[in-house]
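Q: I have 287 residues here and want to know how they pack in 3D. Can you give me a structure?
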Amino acid sequence: MWLFYAIGSAFFAGVTSILAKCGIRNTDSTVATAVRTIVILFFSWIMVFVVGSQDQITRLSGNTLLFLILSGAATGASWLCYFKALQIGDINKVVPIDKSSTVLTILLALIFLQEGISLSKAAAVLVIAVGIFMMIEKKDVEETKGGKGGWIFYAAGSAFFASLTAILGKIGIYGVESNLGTAIRTCVVLVMAWVMVFATGKQGEVKKIVKKELAFICCSGIATGASWLCSYRALQEGPASVIVPIDKLSVLMTVVFSYLVFGEKLGRKEVAGLVLLTVGTVAMALL
């Protein structure tokens, strides 16, 4: 059964972006992020009690708590950037750039943690980078220079802060069960998202969210939670060396769904880039 759970994790991770895109057609991305985080917070604490790590809360050191908060802030920044990128850009272009956080994490680890890198991993990183480059069209770069392609900056910001989240976790979060760490970070994200809502004076827009879009936003949060639950169950019963690469294939599912739902198509060059991105990501998971 672990194989079905692994596929389920990739499926729900892939459908998350589609549901989110459907929920922010008219709703502000910051407001949507704040609402969605409420749902994700619920699921994250379910995971804590499922694995029984709630007892660790009282044993957290001040240093660990500090880095959990910093990591949560980075996660919040990543989510805010990601939702903004989804709102103004194509899913099949935003998601691949967001996935480049794998490359950025390795580079930051080399800079701040002095971690070595094998030739095989370096090759995988290069393949991912080439794949991402191929998926960005010339017109996207020209639009960015003209001030119209802001989604690229937000997508890049999402990837940067996602990689920073991993580095902060590596530096200061030791001995904390991963689900408990995620739950605490999600609390920080929730506070950060709602602070952003009130700081930008968008709190009044919460009541204006169309019911249909609110449903999609909540379903996006539920899909994220379902992906976490499936991933945890799969890792409980099956080999991580196989499960992790399957989970990384969520980018393919996102592209397929973006075509079926929004009619977003990829050219031959972009398809080749997607293949390279997928191969490189799976290779990173296996190495």
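Q: Anything worth noting?
A: The chain has a mean pLDDT of 84. The chain has 13 helices and no strands.
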